[in-house]
Amino acid sequence: MMLNLKTESPERWLAQVDNHLDEILIDHAHCENKAARAALNLLMSYVENEELTIKMTEIVNEELEHFHQVLGMLKKRGIPFRRLTQSNYGRQMKELIRPQEPDRAVDRLLVAALIEARSCERFDLLRHHIDDVELSDFYDELFESEARHYSVYVQLAEDFAPRRKVELRLQELARAEADIINHGDTLPRMHS
Ligand SMILES: [Fe+2]
Ligand SMILES: [Fe+2]
To answer: How remote is the CA of residue 162 from the centroid of ligand 2, in Å?
Structure first.
Protein backbone atom coordinates (compact mmCIF):
# COMPACT_ATOMS: atom_id res chain seq x y z
CA MET A 1 0.00 0.00 0.00
CA MET A 2 1.17 3.45 -0.91
CA LEU A 3 3.10 5.53 1.68
CA ASN A 4 1.69 3.77 4.76
CA LEU A 5 -1.95 4.29 3.78
CA LYS A 6 -4.26 1.62 5.19
CA THR A 7 -6.87 1.61 2.47
CA GLU A 8 -7.04 2.18 -1.26
CA SER A 9 -9.54 4.70 -2.54
CA PRO A 10 -12.84 2.88 -3.01
CA GLU A 11 -14.24 2.49 -6.54
CA ARG A 12 -16.94 4.95 -5.64
CA TRP A 13 -14.43 7.81 -5.61
CA LEU A 14 -13.54 7.74 -9.31
CA ALA A 15 -17.22 7.31 -10.15
CA GLN A 16 -17.98 10.27 -7.90
CA VAL A 17 -15.44 12.59 -9.52
CA ASP A 18 -15.84 11.39 -13.09
CA ASN A 19 -18.60 13.80 -14.04
CA HIS A 20 -17.09 16.61 -11.99
CA LEU A 21 -13.50 16.87 -13.22
CA ASP A 22 -13.79 20.69 -13.48
CA GLU A 23 -14.85 20.88 -9.86
CA ILE A 24 -12.02 18.53 -8.87
CA LEU A 25 -9.52 20.88 -10.49
CA ILE A 26 -10.98 23.85 -8.59
CA ASP A 27 -10.86 21.83 -5.36
CA HIS A 28 -7.29 20.82 -6.15
CA ALA A 29 -6.30 24.51 -6.34
CA HIS A 30 -7.84 25.02 -2.88
CA CYS A 31 -5.94 21.97 -1.57
CA GLU A 32 -2.59 23.39 -2.67
CA ASN A 33 -3.48 26.66 -1.01
CA LYS A 34 -4.45 24.88 2.21
CA ALA A 35 -1.25 22.83 2.12
CA ALA A 36 0.75 26.07 1.98
CA ARG A 37 -1.23 27.49 4.88
CA ALA A 38 -0.76 24.34 7.00
CA ALA A 39 3.00 24.47 6.45
CA LEU A 40 3.08 28.17 7.34
CA ASN A 41 1.09 27.49 10.52
CA LEU A 42 3.59 24.78 11.53
CA LEU A 43 6.45 27.16 10.84
CA MET A 44 4.89 29.81 13.09
CA SER A 45 4.13 27.34 15.91
CA TYR A 46 7.63 25.88 16.13
CA VAL A 47 9.96 28.77 15.32
CA GLU A 48 12.65 27.41 17.69
CA ASN A 49 13.12 24.38 15.45
CA GLU A 50 15.51 25.52 12.77
CA GLU A 51 15.25 22.42 10.61
CA LEU A 52 11.46 22.63 10.67
CA THR A 53 11.57 26.32 9.80
CA ILE A 54 13.76 25.70 6.75
CA LYS A 55 11.76 22.69 5.53
CA MET A 56 8.42 24.44 6.04
CA THR A 57 9.61 27.51 4.16
CA GLU A 58 10.48 25.24 1.22
CA ILE A 59 7.13 23.47 1.37
CA VAL A 60 5.17 26.76 1.61
CA ASN A 61 6.95 27.93 -1.54
CA GLU A 62 6.34 24.67 -3.38
CA GLU A 63 2.66 24.50 -2.46
CA LEU A 64 2.09 28.09 -3.57
CA GLU A 65 3.88 27.25 -6.81
CA HIS A 66 1.54 24.26 -7.24
CA PHE A 67 -1.40 26.56 -6.51
CA HIS A 68 -0.27 28.88 -9.31
CA GLN A 69 0.17 25.94 -11.67
CA VAL A 70 -3.34 24.65 -10.98
CA LEU A 71 -4.75 28.16 -11.49
CA GLY A 72 -2.95 28.15 -14.86
CA MET A 73 -4.58 24.81 -15.76
CA LEU A 74 -7.99 26.23 -14.82
CA LYS A 75 -7.46 29.35 -16.89
CA LYS A 76 -6.35 27.37 -19.94
CA ARG A 77 -9.51 25.30 -19.70
CA GLY A 78 -11.77 28.31 -19.22
CA ILE A 79 -12.86 27.19 -15.74
CA PRO A 80 -13.35 30.16 -13.38
CA PHE A 81 -11.79 29.72 -9.93
CA ARG A 82 -14.32 29.99 -7.15
CA ARG A 83 -15.04 29.10 -3.55
CA LEU A 84 -16.26 25.56 -2.85
CA THR A 85 -17.91 23.84 0.07
CA GLN A 86 -15.22 21.74 1.71
CA SER A 87 -15.45 18.01 2.18
CA ASN A 88 -15.31 16.75 5.78
CA TYR A 89 -11.92 15.11 5.34
CA GLY A 90 -9.70 17.99 6.49
CA ARG A 91 -11.81 18.74 9.55
CA GLN A 92 -12.01 15.06 10.51
CA MET A 93 -8.25 14.68 10.14
CA LYS A 94 -7.65 17.73 12.36
CA GLU A 95 -9.88 16.24 15.04
CA LEU A 96 -7.34 13.41 15.42
CA ILE A 97 -4.68 15.82 16.73
CA ARG A 98 -3.99 15.44 20.45
CA PRO A 99 -4.03 18.79 22.33
CA GLN A 100 -0.93 18.53 24.55
CA GLU A 101 2.57 19.26 23.33
CA PRO A 102 4.73 17.52 22.22
CA ASP A 103 1.97 15.07 21.09
CA ARG A 104 0.32 17.92 19.27
CA ALA A 105 3.40 18.62 17.16
CA VAL A 106 3.80 14.93 16.31
CA ASP A 107 0.14 14.65 15.28
CA ARG A 108 0.08 17.84 13.25
CA LEU A 109 3.10 16.65 11.28
CA LEU A 110 1.77 13.10 10.82
CA VAL A 111 -1.69 14.30 9.79
CA ALA A 112 -0.01 16.57 7.22
CA ALA A 113 2.01 13.55 6.04
CA LEU A 114 -1.08 11.38 5.60
CA ILE A 115 -2.93 14.09 3.69
CA GLU A 116 0.07 14.27 1.34
CA ALA A 117 0.02 10.48 1.01
CA ARG A 118 -3.68 10.45 0.15
CA SER A 119 -3.11 13.20 -2.43
CA CYS A 120 -0.40 11.05 -4.02
CA GLU A 121 -2.70 8.07 -4.20
CA ARG A 122 -5.42 10.17 -5.83
CA PHE A 123 -3.05 11.82 -8.31
CA ASP A 124 -2.00 8.33 -9.31
CA LEU A 125 -5.61 7.24 -9.85
CA LEU A 126 -6.50 10.41 -11.74
CA ARG A 127 -3.50 10.37 -14.04
CA HIS A 128 -4.40 6.88 -15.25
CA HIS A 129 -8.08 7.72 -15.51
CA ILE A 130 -8.23 10.98 -17.45
CA ASP A 131 -7.64 11.57 -21.17
CA ASP A 132 -6.21 15.08 -20.77
CA VAL A 133 -2.47 14.40 -21.38
CA GLU A 134 -1.23 17.74 -20.07
CA LEU A 135 -3.17 17.33 -16.84
CA SER A 136 -2.10 13.72 -16.51
CA ASP A 137 1.60 14.72 -16.83
CA PHE A 138 1.03 17.45 -14.27
CA TYR A 139 -0.41 14.96 -11.74
CA ASP A 140 2.62 12.80 -12.40
CA GLU A 141 4.94 15.68 -11.48
CA LEU A 142 2.96 16.54 -8.38
CA PHE A 143 2.99 12.92 -7.26
CA GLU A 144 6.76 13.06 -6.76
CA SER A 145 6.72 16.34 -4.94
CA GLU A 146 3.89 15.39 -2.55
CA ALA A 147 5.57 12.03 -1.86
CA ARG A 148 8.68 13.96 -0.84
CA HIS A 149 6.58 16.17 1.44
CA TYR A 150 5.19 13.04 3.08
CA SER A 151 8.74 11.96 4.02
CA VAL A 152 9.71 15.42 5.26
CA TYR A 153 6.71 15.55 7.62
CA VAL A 154 7.29 12.05 9.01
CA GLN A 155 10.96 12.79 9.55
CA LEU A 156 10.26 16.10 11.32
CA ALA A 157 7.88 14.32 13.71
CA GLU A 158 10.94 12.50 15.02
CA ASP A 159 12.20 15.82 16.41
CA PHE A 160 9.28 15.70 18.86
CA ALA A 161 9.13 12.01 19.84
CA PRO A 162 11.32 8.88 19.57
CA ARG A 163 11.17 7.12 16.22
CA ARG A 164 9.29 4.10 17.60
CA LYS A 165 6.55 6.27 19.06
CA VAL A 166 6.26 8.20 15.82
CA GLU A 167 5.97 4.95 13.88
CA LEU A 168 3.21 3.62 16.17
CA ARG A 169 1.28 6.86 16.05
CA LEU A 170 1.61 6.98 12.26
CA GLN A 171 0.02 3.53 12.03
CA GLU A 172 -2.78 4.60 14.38
CA LEU A 173 -3.51 7.79 12.45
CA ALA A 174 -3.32 5.93 9.15
CA ARG A 175 -6.03 3.54 10.36
CA ALA A 176 -8.19 6.51 11.37
CA GLU A 177 -7.57 8.09 7.96
CA ALA A 178 -8.65 4.87 6.26
CA ASP A 179 -11.91 4.92 8.26
CA ILE A 180 -12.59 8.49 7.15
CA ILE A 181 -11.94 7.56 3.51
CA ASN A 182 -14.07 4.43 3.69
CA HIS A 183 -16.89 6.37 5.28
CA GLY A 184 -16.66 8.84 2.41
CA ASP A 185 -18.30 12.13 1.61
CA THR A 186 -20.95 12.92 -0.96
CA LEU A 187 -19.14 15.91 -2.46
CA PRO A 188 -16.87 15.36 -5.48
CA ARG A 189 -13.53 16.46 -3.98
CA MET A 190 -9.84 15.49 -4.06
CA HIS A 191 -10.29 14.13 -0.54
CA SER A 192 -13.85 12.81 -0.42
FE1 LIG B 1 1.29 20.48 -3.54
FE1 LIG C 1 2.55 18.81 -0.60
So the answer is: 24
Q: How many residues does the chain have?
A: 192
Q: Which domains does the chain have, with CATH numbers?
A: 16-81+88-183 (1.20.1260.10)
Write down the pLDDT at residue 17.
87
DSSP assignment letter at 3: G
The per-residue DSSP string of 40-96 comes to HHHHHHTTT-HHHHHHHHHHHHHHHHHHHHHHHHHHHTTPPP---PPPSHHHHHHTT
Among the bound ligands, name the one nearest to the CA of residue 142.
1
- Tens-digit pLDDT profile for residues 141-155: 999 999 999 999 999
Nearest to 173 by CA among 181, 46, 83: 181
CB-based contacts of 70: which residues, under 8 Å, 6+ apart? Answer: 25, 28, 29, 32
- Residue 1: pLDDT over 80: no
Q: Which ligand is nearest to the CA of 56?
A: 2
DSSP reduced 3-state for 5 = coil
Give, as residue ranges, everything with CB less than 5 Å from ion ligand 2: 35, 116, 146, 149
pTM for the complete prediction?
Answer: 0.96
Residue 145 has a pLDDT of 95
The gap from C-alpha 44 to its chain's centroid, in whole angstroms, comes to 19
- Give the confidence band of 2 by pLDDT, cuts at 50, 70, 90: confident
Q: Of the candidates 18, 40, 28, which has an alpha carbon nearest to the alpha carbon of residue 66?
A: 28
